[in-house]
Sequence to fold (981 residues):
Amino acid sequence: MIKAILIFNNHGKPRLSKFYEHFNEDIEQQIIRETFHLVSKRDENVCNFLEGGMLIGGSDYKLIYRHYATLYFVFCVDSSESELGILDLIQVFVETLDKCFENVCELDLIFHVDKVHHILAEMVMGGMVLETNMNEIITQVDLQNKMEKSELLLADKCSFA
Amino acid sequence: MPAPIRLRELIRTIRTARTQAEEREMIQKECAAIRSSFREEDNTYRCRNVAKLLYMHMLGYPAHFGQLECLKLIASQKFTDKRIGYLGAMLLLDERQDVHLLMTNCIKNDLNHSTQYVQGLALCTLGCMGSSEMCRDLAGEVEKLLKTSNSYLRKKAALCAVHVIRKVPELMEMFLPATKNLLSEKNHGVLHTSVVLLTEMCERSPDMLAHFRKLVPQLVRILKNLIMSGYSPEHDVSGISDPFLQVRILRLLRILGKNDDDSSEAMNDILAQVATNTETSKNVGNAILYETVLTIMDIKSESGLRVLAINILGRFLLNNDKNIRYVALTSLLKTVQTDHNAVQRHRSTIVDCLKDLDVSIKRRAMELSFALVNGNNIRGMMKELLYFLDSCDPEFKADCASGVFLAAEKYAPSKRWHIDTIMRVLTTAGSYVRDDSVPNLIQLITNSVEMHAYTVQRLYKALLDDISQQPLVQVASWCIGEYGDLLVSGQCEEEEPIQVTEDEVLDVLEGLLVSNLSTPVTRGYSLTAIMKLSTRFSSVNRIKKVVSIYGSSIDVELQQRAVEYNALFKKYDHMRSALLERMPIMEKTASNGPTEIVQTNGETDPSVVETKHPPPVTQSTNQATDLLDLLGGNDMVPVIQTSVPTKPASAGGELLDLLGDLSLSGGPAPTPAPSVPTSQPPFLLDGLSSQPLFNDIAAAGIPPMTAYNKNGLKIDFTFERANPNPNIAVITINASNSTEADMTDFVFQAAVPKTFQLQLLSPSSNVVPALNQGTVTQVIRVLNPQKQQLRMRIKLTYTHRASSIQDLAEVNNFPPQSWQ
Fold:
């Protein structure tokens, strides 16, 4: 099971934080800080797996992370997930973001944090992997966005009428 | 009121803040605006406001006042509203707040909505944070959706079902019928989530597991199609067809095949195929291979397959990619128990990983190396591990040191090697060694009798170099205390003996006492060591001086020890050599856990365990223990009653104090000792009636016996029964000396089997006069509740013609009436 998905930048500022298990708000922030601290210490050419920090709980949990340009993508998982598989999943996630936002960069994540959440919701649900096919995810996300847009247009039409 | 700003605007504004305080100010202002907007119950802008609130929540600011608003959004008809509302619910709400229950109705309606995306949202939210009550209410809806033909909804329903099962395990049966057709789906998304659902059900219930075993052929077929199907653009990831699904299926196969021969049989082929055909150039291929290896190791696969699996892991170890190496080490650790020999083949690679720069890899390699150590490779491995210990990070040192000790204990090829290894660990990582290994080491050293001189010499030299590492210092000072005589005598077979004088040794020990680096425990060790040397060295005066200084130490423990040792010098000097004798060999009950030491045959006296704080109590107890050891299975201690006969019973009382927790029944407690030796004035029996109970002997009719007769010393036992308790036999010993010289410092000790209890009263004197001019008498009371045959082992110590003599004897010839 995936316990949490975090995205933060090189200075530790959170760009997305999704927890699949409940923690208090301040604990959540502490976890983000602690994870950043652990991950930023890592060298470039070491492995992408870290034994998890104390807060996020226990000996069964690992932090699997990837560093892309200015962002760290961190998945906190337990032993029921394949470590190498999660690495691939992170790759799929980033490629999906890339397709949805056209050459995604940090600014996109900053200004469209809700959209990123929606994309993530199509991939991971309740801590479990839902869909891994990039095209399928993008298709569904596009359709939902279209629905939103059409509603907005409708609302505008009504307000003018 | 002006329209609330868009999310984008807010983000832009916040980003212009240059300090944390500025940011906080902006956020607070915006929060106030949002709050008033909420109060206005304006539907148009609610969505925007909640989106902003969620953003602020991510940055770490409190946002719980938006929880109800999320609910209102969920209830709205617009998709946009619902989307943000459900997202807000997932981020802000949880089952600990009652508010979330209000969602149940909305979710129920939305699960039946006409638009699949709304249904999807509802499923998603329920699957993320649904509480058990919600799950119970809505499980029926989820189950319905599991059977729908819409693949988008079906896959979400499957994962939602997993969540429901996790929250309310009793509902698992409900989903069973729906799973029938799950695997015949074409859509990979549905397949994937179905496999997850099946996995969850199998993990939770052995019945389900048995039920789903029949799915193995189907799973095998799906996997085969994936591998053989060739290029399919839809599912391709780096040249492999849907690796995620392959990995999932392999995992489910693992669970189904465990402990089941038939299923394992059915999987053998496909596993071999996957293992040999998968491309390993990219990470996806390696992920599949890794999963395959884990599956092979877990099920009852044939040996050829297992060897293949371990070889794959071996190849992984040589891979440049650190992730692969890490993963390989982790799985080797899991398999080393079952396939030890196969893993041994890769030992050299594993040992190389110890030198890797990556901390995670080093830790795995260290654990694995310890698991691989055996009798054959101990020397080589230990060299590597000691080298690792020298250079590793402090976080590893404690674990590594403990591991080295354990391995050395199990597989040491020779005692000298063992001691050398310990020395090496103590000197390089001495401060990281666990506290409880000190007693372990002491015991080990005591038991390697022939190495005493060598050990003490090396420890002494190590002390000269460095006194900062406390465990090393503690072990060293204990050894010097015990074997200091060997040190100054300059005998050492193993290496070049060093020339050391008594004063130098005492200098070192005193240095430890005053050094700031020594902990109180260490000081205790050194003081006791100095004291022990008083019987081994000749410079007793110096030692006396040191000991008396510490009699006024601020540290209570040191003070107590010094005072007791002082007393030993002054009043009990004759006992000193006996008390401070060499330690006997200690036995171990089990070689697990460093805390389990010295339990000598049922002797559970705690003072024996604390050999590291040996006040004289332990010494004397150990002597008794020595005796008891040999008798096997005796308990009961206070066998030493050597109060100076010139003093009355109160002296014995002081002795008791000195000997601390030595139990009590040793009574010079003024119990009326019913024995009255005819020929000796009864010193201890002041104020006691001297009724000769000899009449009772005749009355009881138990014949006296000779227990011991050797070298001119004869010991007779006479019996009588104590009147109030017929189970107690009272034995009076009479020791007489037929030689021409007196026997002085005579000490009589006795031990009995476990079922008996023994009480030894004070002797009449400790000089057995020559030529039978007198006897020493002593009373023993034996309690025999089980009426078992009385056996006794006695130990006699005395000085005769200026030589000290010790003897042990067993007394088995007790007349039957004495114990029946």
Summary: Chain B touches chain A through 68 residues (CB under 8 Å). Strands of chain B lie at 236-237, 240-241, 705-710, 713-721, 728-737, 743-751, 757-760, 775-783, 792-800, 803-811. Residues 434-578 of chain B form one domain. Residues 20-39 of chain B form the longest helix (20 residues).
